[in-house]
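Subject: sequence -> structure tokens, single chain

Hey, anyone have a minute? Need the predicted structure for the following. Not urgent.
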Amino acid sequence: MIPDGIEKKHLDLAVQEIIRDGIPVSRKSVHYDYLHGNKRYPPKYVISLAAKYAFGNELSSNDFNAVRARDYLRRRGHTVIDRREGTLDVIVSDEDESSFAEGKEKYLLHRSRERDSSITRKAKAAILKETGELSCDICEFDFYKKYGKLGLGFIEVHHKVPVSRLDGNTKTKISDLALVCSNCHRMLHRQKETMGISDLKKIIKSYEASV
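Reply:
Had a minute. Here:
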């Protein structure tokens, strides 16, 4: 049972302790992540530590389960992510690539190019794991910081080499992709020839310097 009285300040102190001392292996989360800022922490362990700051004693992991921890935090307006429902929780490595070679011609009513959506999810997951946020590689716009829960986990993925140029024989790696906001993505594709990431950065920097 989780007693009432755990406030945001107690949760903040619990997170600070986790940042300082780490998370014991036995207290790592299985299904849920408590979102604090742009970082994820195990809800049960956060509440256990927060109770220490609120009441003087740390709650045992046997006193409540993960579902109660999730509901306790959500009822108080905090964000708890269920990994089983998300699209970002993918095990990734530096060697991850698309599950098939992208760019093969696929005949429907008209000719199109095949794309592998799994590699884009892996790209977002890899950056989220590394930096704790998903921001535009060009202008640094962050949908979560702007829109809150509505923007959580949202960012567009851009192929540095357009899919139309792929020969259908080479698999796409995470390093072949860039995370971009919707505006920058449209600008990259506005001209007949797709613009490079560095080129658009230069345009933005040059324009900002002129105004």
